Amino acid sequence: MSDTRYGASPITPIEQRPLQDVSGVFGSRVFAWIGDIVVVFILSWLLVVAISVLGVLTLGLGWLLFPAVAATAFVYAAITIGGRKQATWGMRMAGLRVETVNGGRPDALAAAVHALLFYIAAGTVGLWVLDVLIGFVRADKRLGHDILTGLVVVRA
Q: Could you say which of 3, 12, 14, 143 is the most buried, measured as most Cβ atoms within 10 Å of its Cβ?
């Protein structure tokens, strides 16, 4: 079962992959994550304030939108990683960007799933340790959620 919409097999053998600069990506990813947490926190609070005002104006009906705040991080990742710069604001500050294993630009769905798998792993200590250990033993420094989504974080 292969996806032929893009004219290539979804699994790319290692010898056919483009050369991607992954040197020093681990440390930079930590700083990028810290920057992204700050950005997501600010965006979430702006959304909370907007929903609160909307709730007052609609006599409480707008408050039904509060569960949408939980999706802030996924929408942020989908828009920024799936965008033309291929990086979140934290990644841009750290000099990183995201590519597919073929060297192409990721789409918004792959970016959102990438973020979802990261937050699932980060929320479970055992999965997070496994996720990071996978990156330590691989030559291309891809973490577990990178492998599952077919993405790689490289130097910009």
A: 143
- The partner residues of 97 in beta bridges, in order of sequence, read 154
Domain ranges of the chain: 22-155
pLDDT tens readout for residues 102-115: 889 999 999 999 99
The confidence band for 24, taking pLDDT boundaries of 50, 70 and 90, is confident
> For residue 155, what are the CA distances in angstroms to 31, 72, 111?
14, 26, 17
| Distance from chain centroid for Cα 99 | 11
pLDDT of residue 20: 80
Query: 135 near 145, Cβ under 8 Å?
Result: no
The rounded Cα 57 to chain-centroid distance in angstroms is: 34
Mean predicted confidence (pLDDT) in 4-32 = 73
The answer to whether 99 and 106 have CB atoms below 8 angstroms apart is: yes
CA distance 101 to 104: 7
Residue indicated by tokens 């907007």? 50
- In the DSSP assignment, the letter for residue 16 is G
Residue type, 76: Y
**CA 94/CA 89 separation, integer angstroms:** 9
